[in-house]
């Protein structure tokens, strides 16, 4: 096995969302004390996709198939499957194993779940990317899927934040001489109750102020830490593809980075906060829209319950 240091390419992207759409007005009509214009102004959310009968495995499998098709890779060439979720269908086996079975893969590729909430993609991308760089794996499938509606109390005001979905990327070795992939992940466990499902509860509980303070700090901070490792500055960034907590947090992040908000991609207006799915879902949209050009310098960043957080810098090719 070749353990020489390699680099990484995002070879394909894919996503899947439930067909059902729930608007802000729909939630207001359910008796939740919120107004459509307040949600749009403060969170940037207009609607979200909510699963009816689709399971986490269903959505994750669809996203995985789309990513592999986009990459032009056969499923048996995948040597590692990482699946980030906080809404698994079963306690055992892992959702990654269920998806691998659903995909009809017969090789012995390891398949495991990651629980890092909204930073699930950053954890999966970093782990898989570095395993490819080390030569341990050649092709990795990183999937994120969360059905946040299954752990949401629809009578509470915080139900407005979340939506359901799945997204995936295929990572492979890069032979491009100007390739760049650098990623860092972190945790700060001083406030584990800030966003959680408490033991014995069935619904997600969140301290909105704590989330705002944490996200406003660690999103730009994580990006800067990776830029420094690469000898780059904020001005070098072409795009930022971040987690989608709220439009206000993303505007604050752009301000702290000193970059135009036009460089910050967002889609929470259509999907709300889909937890760990938000970054790869947005990446798939931007990729398929043809916005990403060769040598564009892209930053990914996310923060989730724990707190878990991280960022990556990638040169698109």
TrEMBL record:
GO terms for biological process: fatty acid biosynthetic process; secondary metabolite biosynthetic process. One of its GO terms (molecular function) is 3-oxoacyl-[acyl-carrier-protein] synthase activity. The keyword Membrane applies. The chain crosses the membrane at residues 297-316. Its EC number is 2.3.1.41. It comes from Trichlorobacter lovleyi (strain ATCC BAA-1151 / DSM 17278 / SZ) (Geobacter lovleyi). Keywords: Acyltransferase, Membrane, Transferase, Transmembrane, Transmembrane helix. It is an enzyme of class 2 (transferase). Residues 229-316 form the Beta-ketoacyl-[acyl-carrier-protein] synthase III C-terminal domain. Gene3D superfamilies: 3.40.47.10. This is 3-oxoacyl-(Acyl-carrier-protein) synthase III. Residues 112-186 form the Beta-ketoacyl-[acyl-carrier-protein] synthase III N-terminal domain. It comes from the Bacteria. NCBIfam families: PRK09352.1.
């Amino acid at each position: 096995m070749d353990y020489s240091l390699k680099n990484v390419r995002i070879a394909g992207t894919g996503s899947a969302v439930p067909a059902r759409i729930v608007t802000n007005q729909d939630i207001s009509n359910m008796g939740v004390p919120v107004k459509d214009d307040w949600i749009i102004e403060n969170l940037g959310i207009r609607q979200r996709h909510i699963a009816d009968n689709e399971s986490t495995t269903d959505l994750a499998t669809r996203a995985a198939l789309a990513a592999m098709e986009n990459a032009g890779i056969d499923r048996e060439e995948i040597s590692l499957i990482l699946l980030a979720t906080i809404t698994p269908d079963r306690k055992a086996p892992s959702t990654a194993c269920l998806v691998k079975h659903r995909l009809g893969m017969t090789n012995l590729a390891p398949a495991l779940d990651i629980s890092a909430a909204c930073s699930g993609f950053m954890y999966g991308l970093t782990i898989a990317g570095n395993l490819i760089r080390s030569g341990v794996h050649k092709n990795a499938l990183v999937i994120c899927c969360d059905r946040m509606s299954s752990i949401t109390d629809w009578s509470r005001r915080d139900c407005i934040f979340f939506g359901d979905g799945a997204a995936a990327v295929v990572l492979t070795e890069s032979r491009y001489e100007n390739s760049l992939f650098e990623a860092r992940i972190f945790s700060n466990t001083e406030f584990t109750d800030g966003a959680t499902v408490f033991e014995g509860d069935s619904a997600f509980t969140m301290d909105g102020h704590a989330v705002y303070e944490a996200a406003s700090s660690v999103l730009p901070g994580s990006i800067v830490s990776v830029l420094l490792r690469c000898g780059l500055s904020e001005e070098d960034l072409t795009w930022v593809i971040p987690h989608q907590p709220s439009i206000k947090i993303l505007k604050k992040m752009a301000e702290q980075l000193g970059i135009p908000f036009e460089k910050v991609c967002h889609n929470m207006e259509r999907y709300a906060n889909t937890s760990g799915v938000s970054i790869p879902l947005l990446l798939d949209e931007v990729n398929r829209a043809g916005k990403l050009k060769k040598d564009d310098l892209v930053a990914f960043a996310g923060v989730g319950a724990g707190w878990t957080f991280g960022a990556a810098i990638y040169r698109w090719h």
